[in-house]
Amino acid sequence: MAVDQEKKTATRKTPAKKAPVKKAPVKKAAAKKTTARKPAAKKIATKKTSAAKPSAPLKAGATKAAASNASTTNDLKDRAINKARSTANDGKAKAGEAIGTLSEMIENSAKTIDENVGEKYGDYARSAADAVSSFAEKVNSKDVDVMVEDAREFVRKKPAVAIGAAAVVGLLISRLIKSGTDDRT
Length: 185
Prior knowledge:
By secondary structure, this protein is mainly alpha-helical. 71% of the residues lie in helices and 0% in strands.
């Protein structure tokens, strides 16, 4: 019986016939002149070592132009810095005068406050006038560069206060601008 089963399995396992493979027709190339190519050989890294060639000397006009261009840039930079510094000094002087005038106004109003509200509140106004006056003196006595350095140091030490002050100043400036445009219309 074992032989019968082997025959049955042998007949079942007949190899499948493969389909014949068709070959693509080969086209004959037209006769072309071909040049013989040499096989690519590995290149050995042999760089020619030669001394660096000196660069060609610049023309006299080119060096003068480069020098004048650099000096022009420095001149423009120096003029811009000087203009900004002089504008800042003018602004500082005007701010000092305005703060001094504010101090005088507060001092003058202290007398009126004494008469209307009482001496206690007049004293508050006088102390405020003294504080504003001393601030005006500090502004007038300091150089712009020193004031800028003081501002930088303050921002480094207390950045949150500086950001808050900048926001308040920005709000005040925007209100002033807005009120100025409303008056014109």
